[in-house]
Every structure is written in C-alpha cells, then in structure tokens.
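Example 277, ligand magnesium ion.
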Amino acid sequence: MTASPQVLLQHHLKQLRLPTFYKEYDKLAKQCAAEGVDHPRYLLRLAELELLDRERRTTERRIHAARFPAVKSFDTFDFVAIPSLNKMLVMELARCEFINRRENVIALGNSGTGKTHAALALGLSACQRGHAVGFITAAQLVHQLMEARDEKRLIRFQAQLANYKLLIIDELGYVPLSLTGAELLFDVFSQRYERGSTMVTSNLPFEEWTSIFGSERLTGALLDRLTHHVHILEFNGDSYRLKQSRARKRGKSAEAQLQAAEQIATADPNTGEITDI
Ligand code: ADP
Ligand code: MG
C-alpha cells in the first residue's frame, strides 16, 4: 500500500522543516484558485508565510534564551515620568546599532526609577533585531561564575557569555562582591571589551563603584574598559513604584508609610529594591 500524497507531503515538509508550508498549503491553494492567482504566486505567498513564521519563531527562541525576568517594552514606558532620561538617546539605542558597534550602555539611578524596565525593553528590541541577548543580575552572574569555577567549567561558561551580542547585567551595586567575585566579574567586562556590548544598571554613581569591587585599582581598570565606548542613561527621580502606590492608596497612614519608604529609598540606595508596599 502506498501512502497518500498528503501523508508523504507532510513527511517531506517536516524533513525540510517547512511547517507553515504544510499548515497553510491547502487553505492557500483554495484561496489562490478562487482569486485566480497563478502557481508561482501561490508558491511565493506560501514561501513568504513560512519566512514570516520562521522569523517569529526565531525571535521567540531568542527572547526565551535571553532569560528576561519579564518581557517589557518601551510601549509601556512613560518617559514623562522620568524627565532626566534622554528619550532621544533611548530611542536611538532601541534601534540597536550600538550593538553592531560593540558599544556599552550604563543606566544609573535610584531604585524604582525604571532602569530594569528600560534594560528589558532594550533587550527585547535587540532580540527582535536578531541579536543574541543575555539578561542576568550581577549577583546571579557572580554566583554562576563562582560555581563554574568550582566545577572547573569556567572557560566554557565564559565562552557562553561571549556568544551574547548584548549582555545585560542588572543591579550592580546592591550586593558588595567578594574579592574573587569582583575579579571574575572584571574578567567578564575585560573579555567583552570591544568584542560585544554590555549594558549595566546600577543604583550607585561611579564614584561609589569602589565599594562594590573592593579595590580602587580593579574599579579603575573596569571603568576604563566599560566607559571607553559608552552611552549613559540617567534615571534621576522618584521611584515610579512609590509614586504609583501613592496614587493608588489615598489613606493617611498609607501616605505616611510611603513617605517613610521614599525617604529610606532616597537616603540609602544600598537598602535594595523596594518591591512591595
Ligand atoms: P529600577 O530597576 O530602576 O529599580 P524598575 O525598572 O524595576 O526600576 O521599575 C519599577 C517598576 O515601575 C516596574 O514595574 C516598572 O515597569 C515600572 N516603571 C518604572 N519606571 C517606569 C516608567 N517610566 N514608565 C512605566 N513604568 C515604569
Ligand atoms: Mg532594577
């Protein structure tokens, strides 16, 4: 018994990795017949559908591989809320040409001012434009570097990091690093220098980065590399979260609590993320 042409076609198209061809050929054939579209145009439409779908699938895979903690875009970012941020520059960066030029981005500012949101949005934009992106917090990265070193697979892990065209290191500065941690992180910056783009977000101004890395010499060498080709995004302002909570909650005691929280957030950025009030 011979298989029906449909079964064979399904098999062959699967082998050829053309799932959209298989999914759409019948419906599109009927449509083209009804419209009097000729064979080459029918095949062209089918090929275009496959290409579009393939692009979408690749982008989805890239987004998944980037390990974003959340998918956020500039569509939901309110630039009016943060006047210190240079919107023109951000929109220019969102076109991702800086990645082709292997330039870096540093986002500085208090907790809750939208640094992570902007980093996620830039990362998403990079994925959509075909770049391999990695997103990780500084603490996680150091943890993974130490683990890789202990398990004698540091070189492999470093090679993996080098594959990212854009590596986003979020929240540098919330946790002071051990000497080894600082050195391992320094190596990452050093290896990426002029080879790939790095984006860093931090609640600490550069003057205070020595407190993260422990050593002035290491911090100096790191800043030298990181800031050679860099775009700096300034997030100076009040926490977006606190402002939103304030708008939501009208009670007097809630207002007082928020004021206290805001004081802590602005007085001592080392206290960390204020996530839930
Ligand atoms: P940071 O990383 O600077 O601490 P986040 O990016 O985590 O701040 O922002 C805190 C929350 O507020 C997030 O849910 C984020 O989406 C939202 N947010 C912050 N700034 C803005 C903004 N300008 N427009 C829209 N949402 C914002
Ligand atoms: Mg953040």
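Summary: The pocket of magnesium ion (ligand 2) is lined by residues 115-116, 170-171, 201 (CB under 6 Å).
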